[in-house]
């Protein structure tokens, strides 16, 4: 069941998450209910992405991270993987103008070397074109896995130590975070997962250690402004202590 926090008073409107990360789950089940293919569901999910980006801008969210393709998604049926990658390529080809129109800076995190050269080229080109945009940072996690991210960070740290760029005694959480894909981004304040499942699914494992978690049964293509606002209102009710005790 989803949370229901529909407060609209001033107390809650002031407390807005700066960085929202979303696990967009439910495209396949949404399509199945309608007797359609999973590819049809992913196309509907893409429309929900466009809507959510606009909602993030309207709510003055600074960073929006979307889990679009996990490192485990390669295990899905080949036709579904192909349709997902084609949809990603279509978005990169056709949405860059809109990204610039709305002053959005695009970043893509994950093991991009697994993608074909054409897709990699469009990713890097879209990032380059939107690099200087100063509005919403749209962070796309593609072929991304939290365990992979941490392991890659460990490799980079080991290499830095071996080459004398880093003293092993200097390594702290803040230092290690600089070797992860999300280096330079704000901490994740709120994680939203649609589709009814209540798990993290290998998403930003290091980065969401103290994030607030919001789960909703709504399937991703049906995600809308009411659910988005409910998630923000839920965040507004949370007392974020980060392990500390807050005195009255």
From TrEMBL:
According to UniProt, the reaction catalysed is: 8 isopentenyl diphosphate + (2E,6E)-farnesyl diphosphate = di-trans,octa-cis-undecaprenyl diphosphate + 8 diphosphate
Q: Does the keyword Metal-binding apply?
A: yes
A GO molecular function term, named singly, is:
magnesium ion binding
| CDD domains membership | Cis_IPPS
User: What is the required cofactor set for this protein?
Assistant: Mg(2+)
Keyword Acetylation tagged: no
Q: Could you tell me which Pfam families the record lists for this protein?
A: Prenyltransf (PF01255)
> What keywords were assigned to this record?
Cell shape, Cell wall biogenesis/degradation, Magnesium, Metal-binding, Peptidoglycan synthesis, Transferase
Q: Which domain of life is it from?
A: Bacteria
Kindly list the positions annotated as binding Mg(2+).
25, 212
Enzyme Commission code(s) on record = 2.5.1.31
Q: Which family does it belong to?
A: Belongs to the UPP synthase family.
Q: What does this protein do?
A: Catalyzes the sequential condensation of isopentenyl diphosphate (IPP) with (2E,6E)-farnesyl diphosphate (E,E-FPP) to yield (2Z,6Z,10Z,14Z,18Z,22Z,26Z,30Z,34E,38E)-undecaprenyl diphosphate (di-trans,octa-cis-UPP). UPP is the precursor of glycosyl carrier lipid in the biosynthesis of bacterial cell wall polysaccharide components such as peptidoglycan and lipopolysaccharide.
Q: How does it assemble?
A: Homodimer.
Q: What is this protein called?
A: Ditrans,polycis-undecaprenyl-diphosphate synthase ((2E,6E)-farnesyl-diphosphate specific)
Q: Which organism is it from?
A: Buchnera aphidicola (Aphis fabae)
Q: What is the lineage of its organism?
A: Bacteria, Pseudomonadati, Pseudomonadota, Gammaproteobacteria, Enterobacterales
What gene is this protein translated from?
A: uppS
